[in-house]
Design brief:
Elements: H1 5-19, H2 25-45, H3 61-65, H4 73-89, H5 100-103, H6 107-119, H7 137-153, H8 164-173, E1 186-189, H9 196-204, E2 210-215, H10 218-230, E3 237-240, E4 250-251, E5 254-255, E6 258-263, H11 298-308, E7 309-320, H12 329-340, E8 343-348, E9 361-367, E10 376-381, E11 387-389, E12 392-394, H13 397-409, E13 417-421, H14 422-427, H15 449-454, E14 457-458, H16 459-463, H17 466-471, H18 473-479, E15 480-484, E16 487-490, H19 497-502, H20 505-530, H21 538-553, H22 561-586, E17 593-598, E18 604-610, H23 616-623, H24 625-651, H25 667-677, H26 684-721, H27 727-768, H28 773-793
Parallel strand pairs: 1-2, 1-6, 2-3, 6-7, 8-10
Antiparallel strand pairs: 4-5, 7-9, 8-9, 10-13, 11-12, 14-16, 15-16, 17-18
Helix pairs in contact: 1-6, 1-7, 2-7, 2-10, 8-9, 8-13, 13-22, 20-27, 21-22, 22-27, 23-24, 23-26, 24-26, 25-26
């Protein structure tokens, strides 16, 4: 059976991280990723004529495996594996596998490298077979490791990796999918790092495109080259060098121009002029717009991008927010860029997304093709849409989709996005700081003074819930009644607000309608899911289903369709993705396997069984519901008896209680105490209580035995049923009972949250204005009088 995709990634990371020892993650990643690379190219290209990667004789992963345990394993890897591969494929700057300062000396080095190589001998890591159509499992594994190494590398050493979610945003807003692309279409990244951003753009294109990248750091440029090969882009041209001082891509002495340029340059590079005279730049990147400050290199990279674009080219660059509003030389550059019409849009991102810094950043979108007629700049503030992911923030699937939808369609949305005219920008002296144009702050929940003084819920606060009243117009009058002009009274008890909302006919009809709405989608995709066969592309399936679900809920009242989309993407990542990779590899096979755990001494223990595709609860629910009900009844009886024992112990505990003389409350101690006092007439009550407890204890033991036996019987029934399952039954269990049932529960939970939000808001308003100030004053006076009277009775003059 194929290894689950998530298990492949996590096992790689866990194994590698365990061997890292004291080495910094930013260094250790080089060793791990090189091994992953060699394993992949050996599986995919070894022995193939005309392969894009040459594997010299004796330099495959199998040859490396043969070196395990040898005293000179590090030196052999360098000389017999890496050197021939580097020469044959024009690669360089592989890490030194014989570096004692990083890998240790003697046996320590031998053991570490031997164990590291052994990780990649896992049969599940046969990359010649473990690939589904258009689904780059190995490339994704590489990305997974890169993300984790970036997270572990710390603030100053994680800049080699652009978060994939940000790369996805850039790839989609560029419009490369809609463009007429071909092999002649060029995509360039002047600061490509490990190449993740370039690859996301290439993946977004409908056809193969030509990739170019330059990276200053030698080791990182090697990672980028390997990354291209791992993602089936072996012809990508990645070169090493400083883009600003020594741009490698030129034509006839001038900068080469490209159709698309993307970049995530180092933020606020303070050494960008090192080796460069900006005033006399031979490529004329700065004179038309102005020379950036010597200690702020952000605009140097942006102007390099502008100069590297064809006259119809499009680009996107990630930069710190300061480029939008900083003054002096940068203000002049910004003004010139805006007047030239090159800036198509600005997207503000959440803070703490990037591994090299925690400051918020933005995406500057450049479009030369429409520069002449540009009437404004589309601005979008996505700073509040993210999730926490360990020490960093991370864009969710719905955040990415919303950004792309709003930007590519030019949709204006309050507090989120709008087209800002050139006239408005000029009035603001070409300051592009997003808060000047988009107020993304949530409005304050204002207190109504008259409502506090005279009572009554302000009509304005109730009207602010109009999205609910539009759907359930009768619900408003069922909850509120007029008090005086502009103010209302709650007509139900505060404790009954939830019931009044949930049981209102209009609200129940709305909930039923939403359930029917989901059933429509469920029915439409059920047959599609059951028709899946081995070899299908899980990523394509996820994209199609998620888009259909998003469109299905677009325009529906109250519910946010992007939230529904997120539920699907979350479930896909957590469960459905792994299931689909099992199906595409093995078909609709549900075969349980034993769980064998091995301790550090090598002793194995059978911990039961499991089945990933069709878990035991699905089998039990559909085929053994009666047996499960009997087990549940026994469990309830057991809990009841255990509860009665606990109550008895609490009621008769303490110094004077029946259990006071016991060292421990257990069967032996209680039995011994009963025997001790059985002839003591004064201890009859104590004996009766202890006897009752003892009977309950015996009942509990009997029930525990019955529960254990019933669980074992049910477990055996379920296990024996798997071989009897037909393919049609497996499809029903997986598609209907597992996937669609889980999605239905998640989406129904979204509806519950909507209704809870209304309930909570109504309750807050009711409690806020429940008592007007005069009544509160009267209550305070009454309480004060009671205190005074109490003090007088005590002989104290208040």
């Amino acid at each position: 059976m194929a290894l689950k995709k998530s298990e492949l990634y996590s096992s790689l990371w866990a194994s590698c991280d365990e061997l890292r020892g004291g080495m910094d993650a930013s260094q250790y990643k080089d060793y791990v990723l090189v091994l992953l690379f060699i394993k992949y190219i050996s599986d995919k290209y070894s022995g193939q004529p005309y392969a894009p990667i040459t594997i010299p004789a004796g330099a495959s992963f199998a040859d490396m495996s043969a070196m395990k345990g040898k005293s000179d394993i590090g030196d052999q890897i360098n000389k017999k594996i890496l050197a021939p591969l580097a020469t044959a494929n024009k690669l360089s700057d592989f890490p030194d596998f014989n570096d004692a300062t990083k890998l240790g000396t003697g046996k320590e080095m031998v053991d570490r490298l031997t164990n590291l190589v052994a990780i990649f001998e896992n049969p599940a890591l046969d990359f010649s077979k473990n690939r589904a159509d258009s689904d780059d499992i190995l490339g994704d594994a590489y990305e997974y490791l890169m993300r984790h190494f970036a997270t572990e590398s710390g603030k100053s050493k994680g800049q080699f990796y652009t978060p994939s979610e940000v790369s996805m945003v850039i790839a989609q807003i560029l419009g490369i999918r809609e463009a007429q692309t071909s092999a002649n279409t060029s995509v360039y990244d002047p600061t490509c790092g490990s190449g993740s951003l370039l690859l996301k753009v290439a993946h977004e294109a409908r056809t193969s495109v030509t990739l170019y990248g330059q990276e200053k750091d030698a080791a990182t440029s090697t990672l980028a080259r390997m990354n291209m090969i791992l993602h089936d882009n072996p012809t990508a041209l990645i070169v090493q060098g400083n883009t600003l001082t020594d741009p490698k891509f030129t034509e006839n002495g001038a900068l080469k121009t490209f159709d698309f340029v993307v970049a995530n340059p180092p933020f606020s590079d303070k050494r960008w002029t090192s080796g460069l005279d900006p005033e006399n730049d031979e490529h004329a990147r700065f004179q038309p717009f102005g020379v950036p400050p010597a200690k702020q290199g952000d605009y140097a990279y942006l102007l390099h991008i502008v100069r590297s674009l064809k006259s119809t080219g499009k680009g996107a660059c990630i930069l710190p927010h300061g480029v939008l509003f900083r003054g002096n030389a940068e203000a002049a550059i910004r003004r010139n860029l805006v007047r030239k019409g090159y800036i198509k849009g600005i997207i503000g991102l959440p803070a703490n997304l990037f591994y090299g810094t925690g400051i918020p950043a933005c995406i500057i979108v450049i479009d030369k093709a429409e520069a002449a007629g540009r009437k404004g700049i589309f601005m979008l503030d996505a700073s509040s849409g993210f999730m926490k992911d360990g020490p960093k923030n991370r864009l969710r699937s719905q955040d990415i989709h919303k950004i792309v939808d709003m930007f590519t369609k030019g949709l204006e949305f309050p507090k989120y996005s709008r087209m800002v005219s050139m006239e408005e920008i000029e009035k603001n002296d070409f300051n592009l700081n997003l808060p000047r144009y988009i107020d993304s702050q949530e409005p304050e929940d204002l207190q109504d003074i008259e409502g506090h003084l005279r009572g009554g819920i302000p009509q304005a606060d109730v009207d602010a819930l109009s999205r609910y009243w539009n759907v359930c117009p009768g619900l408003k009058s069922a909850l509120f009644a007029p008090n005086r002009p502009g103010y209302l009274d709650l007509t139900v008890d505060k404790a009954g607000i939830k019931v009044a909302i949930f049981e209102h006919p209009e609200f129940t009809a709305f909930m039923s309608g939403m359930q029917a709405h989901f059933t429509l989608w469920r029915n439409s995709v059920c047959a599609t899911l059951k028709s899946l066969t081995s070899g299908f592309a899980p990523k394509d399936l996820a994209a199609r289903l998620s888009e259909e679900l998003l469109a299905h809920y677009a325009g529906q009242p109250l519910i946010k369709h992007y939230n529904v989309y997120q539920h699907f993407m979350d479930y896909w990542a957590a469960t459905m993705q792994d299931d689909c990779y099992l199906i595409t590899a093995d078909g609709w096979i549900a075969k349980p396997c034993r769980i064998i755990e091995t301790d550090k001494k090598g002793k194995s223990r059978d911990k039961g069984w499991t089945c990933d595709l069709v878990p035991k609860p699905l089998i039990v629910a559909r085929y053994f519901a009666r047996e499960q009900a009997a087990l549940d009844a026994l469990t309830v009886d057991l809990e009841t008896v255990s509860g009665r024992m606990t109550e008895l112990e609490e009621e008769h505990g303490g110094d004077e209680g029946a259990f006071a003389e016991l060292d421990k409350v257990n069967k032996p101690c209680v039995s011994a105490r009963i025997k001790e006092i059985r002839f003591d007439a004064s201890a009859k009550e104590e004996a009766a209580i202890l006897s009752t407890w003892l009977k309950l204890c015996q009942q509990e033991a009997d029930l525990k035995k019955k529960v254990k036996e019933a669980e074992a019987d049910l477990d055996a029934l379920a296990y024996r049923h798997y071989p009897k399952l037909t393919e049609a039954e497996i499809k029903t269990l997986v598609v209907e009972d597992k996937w669609l049932a889980s999605l239905e529960t998640a989406i129904h939970g979204e509806m519950d949250r909507i209704s809870q939000a209304l309930t909570q808001r109504v309750r807050v308003l009711a409690e806020r204005y429940a008592k007007p100030l005069p009544q509160l004053v009267e209550e305070v006076d009454a309480l004060a009088a009671r205190v005074d009277a109490h003090l007088r009775r005590m002989g104290v003059t208040p």
